[in-house]
């Protein structure tokens, strides 16, 4: 049986059906429980993450507070770390790879709206999925806009606004984010040496 999500994730409008409303209520209830859970209660937090997200292995760490809309459309790889105040607007799918570091206040958006002001009056939203490859580091306060793919092993500088795809093995900074250099496997360990 088809789900209302099938059309939405295929690029159709986010419609306020009973299924969507129930998924939002469910996601927000789980999110409230997760944000209120003690950081030392790993079993409880793992269970809540398992219920909230589309995929979240036990090897991940999600710091609280954390914010999302549904949770169900977020897929997280192994050994990925979210620092404080990460926000993911998951009207569409968000795929985050293995060994990814998200610094405080990172924002990931999949929701977008029509350029037509009359359509926006109805709050009609669409989605463009976001993908972040393995071994990426997303700096504090960075914003990842709808439809962006970030290649593996890439670093996004603090405060960057990523409006277009960023290739693998890149260091991208600024607003809008631009690649300022290509990274190699033998980069120095000292972050200051990368400036």
UniProtKB/TrEMBL annotation:
Belongs to the transferase hexapeptide repeat family. Keywords: Acyltransferase, Nodulation, Repeat, Transferase. This is Nodulation protein L. PROSITE patterns: HEXAPEP_TRANSFERASES. One of its GO terms (molecular function) is O-acyltransferase activity. It holds the Pfam family Hexapep. It comes from Aeromonas lusitana. Acetyltransferase implicated in the O-acetylation of Nod factors. InterPro entries: Hexapep, Hexapep_transf_CS, Hexapeptide_acetyltransf, Mac_dom, Trimer_LpxA-like_sf. It comes from the Bacteria. GO terms for cellular component: cytosol. The keyword Nucleotide-binding does not apply. Gene3D superfamilies: Hexapeptide repeat proteins. Residues 5-58 form the Maltose/galactoside acetyltransferase domain.
